[in-house]
Amino acid sequence: MIHFNVPPFVGTEFKYMREAVENHKICGDGPFTKKCDEWIEERFSTPKAMLTTSGSTALDMAALLCGFKPGDEVILPSYTFSSTANSFVLAGAKLVFVDIRPDTMNIDEKKIEQAITEHTRAIVPVHYAGVACEMDTIMDIAKKYNLIVVEDAAQAVMSTYKGKALGSIGDFGCFSFHETKNYSMGEGGAILINYEKYIERAEILREKGTNRSQFFRGQVAKYNWVDFGDSYLQSDLNAAYLWAQLQVADEINDNRLSTWNAYYEVFKEYESEGIIELPVIPDGCVHNAHMFYIKFKNLETRQDYIRFMKENDILCVFHYVPLHSAPAGLKFGRFDGIDEYTTKESERLVRLPLYYNIASEDRAKVIEKTKEYLNRL
Ligand SMILES: Cc1ncc(COP(=O)(O)O)c(C=O)c1O
């Protein structure tokens, strides 16, 4: 069976995890957490990065740091994971879904302004498949209407937009290190805090509402419960696992890109014949090969392809069912304007196996079987 995903493992994970155990320091904010935080800050030019227990809780932190008041609205795409929406519902905001662009599957930046009301407080661009949203336009709109921008960069670690790391452009960026992501610690994430003004509150929020971080830095004589908070600290054992991969981040990225490029080279011929559509990488965007997808003509053909591949022991999967039509989406949000592309495009999309160090024979089999299927269309 060729799996859709195999979590990354580079070989040094156990060494570092052993070190963490032998240090007798496996709770949060240990040496490996610090190494990971600093690596993210340096590599992606952000003043503060904090590992969290998941991409979802990184989004939870960002949403709480927005400081919503009753009735506040948040603009986001409907074509995304439930986590993007959950965090803002939990923080008390109403969801306003905006259509996607059919080329990148990202929020259509041209449809954001019309969704803004006097209650709008934030925009949440989701960088689908590690390909950037049109951030210049989004940041201009945010500036014009004084809105907070939370980048859901769960899939976009190592991707850039006009030379800037995704996650480092808005007020906050949220990474995921789930096992399905390019870099993993099983479950995990990070929040990038791109403005100093949020840092103190963020530290308190993640430390159960206490000013313990200030205490450890010797800034206060004792620590106290100073505001509401929660525990978002990742275990140092998990951070040790992640650290192994961050040290070879470029190698992992190159390895994934080589598979992505191999797929693209073979399948572009079918795209030019109008049989399928492939991902579009706009000018100025450098992606991280998080995902390779194909879009078929319609839902039936996509489902038939998934079935065909499964019969050949290859697991290909579809992606998000749009949130605005899901029960919770109907309860917590509304779709602004017309759903021109969200539902239609999501029904056509299928993801191919792509992971670090996929065996060359497995990659070749995915290509061969897909060609066999496409040649029949
Ligand atoms: C776009 C998006 N946002 C948020 C998340 C949540 O990340 P996690 O699974 O680490 O909580 C994911 C991951 O599946 C995602 O793809």
Any descriptors?
377 residues; alpha/beta; Aspartate Aminotransferase, domain 2; Aspartate Aminotransferase, domain 1; 2 domains; 8-stranded mixed β-sheet; 3-stranded antiparallel β-sheet; binds pyridoxal-5'-phosphate
Describe the structure.
Helix 2 crosses helix 8 (236-246) and helix 9 (249-272) runs parallel beside helix 13. The longest helix has 24 residues, at 249-272. The chain starts with 12 loop residues before the first helix and ends with a helix. Strand 6 (160-161) and strand 7 form a beta hairpin. 49% of the residues are buried. With 377 residues, it is an alpha/beta fold. The chain has 13 helices and 13 strands. 38% of the residues lie in helices and 13% in strands. The mean pLDDT is 97. The protein folds into 2 domains: 13-246, Aspartate Aminotransferase, domain 2 (3-Layer(aba) Sandwich), CATH 3.40.640.10; 249-376, Aspartate Aminotransferase, domain 1 (Alpha-Beta Complex). The strands form 3 sheets. It has an 8-stranded mixed sheet, sandwiched between helices. Strands 7-6-10 form a 3-stranded antiparallel sheet, with no helix packed on it. It is globular, with a radius of gyration of 21 Å. It binds pyridoxal-5'-phosphate.
Can I get a quick summary?
By secondary structure, this protein is α/β, with parallel strands linked by helices. Helices cover 38% and strands 13% of the residues.
Q: What's the number of structural domains?
A: 2
CATH fold-level assignment of the largest domain: Aspartate Aminotransferase, domain 2
Succession of helices and strands: HHEHEHEEHEEEEEHHHHEEHHEHEH
Bound molecules: pyridoxal-5'-phosphate
Number of helices: 13
